Amino acid sequence: GPIGMKLHTDFAKRKNDESARVPFHKSFEGTKLAEILEPTLGACIYQEQVMQIATQCAGFTSQEADKLRKAMGKKDLNILLKYEDKFLQGLLSHGYSNGKANKELWEGLKGFARYAFNKSHATSYALNSYQTAFLKVHYPIHFMATLLNRKFGRDDFSSFYDEAGRMGIKLIPPDINTSKYHIAPSADLQSISYGLGYIKTLPDDFLREIIKERDENGKYKDLADLIKRIPSMSASRLKGLAA
Prior knowledge:
Blueprint: H1 7-16, H2 32-37, H3 47-58, H4 62-74, H5 77-93, H6 99-113, H7 119-138, H8 140-151, H9 157-166, E1 171-172, E2 184-185, E3 192-193, H10 204-217, H11 223-229, H12 235-242
Parallel strand pairs: 1-3
Antiparallel strand pairs: 2-3
Helix pairs in contact: 3-4, 4-5, 5-6, 7-8, 8-9
């Protein structure tokens, strides 16, 4: 949405050129509308700004402003037509006398609201993006191991597997003496170990029993040692493990 409306380039221009920070129309400079848009360099960025303009510049109630916001987001023409005249008349009664500019403002808000975020939502996404980028850069093994666990069995798993490879991280096969139940960083933190829990045909309780015994009493010396130490070992399970 923002890219389709070219807001990304417009905002960049406003950031670097003070003369470009016009709040929709020059006639709105020095008004309450300009004050509402000042924190975002004269551009309408958040849904809350639509509601502020409606209440503080066009005399809408908070309830009406919220209905207007929803109608713009859903492109509900019936509601928009209902509020258009009220919005334009409200601007005039609040001292915004340039009818052409007022109409441009209305059309601009309609276009903007189709893709607008509310500020709290945008803040949460921005913070989450920053945190995940930081973890990916500074803790790549742990980050990708966690991500691959979350994506296992999903259609997009392969793309994240490829991303780990692009980063130089190797996903090594499961090892009965080193692998955990889930995909996890290797002991030396140089690669990612495939989880025993993702081996097909082997029951969950059986795999957890193998891991518990190993963690409590040390690594398995060989297959005979494994059979000796796991009481629930059966011929069918042994066959699946060998496979």
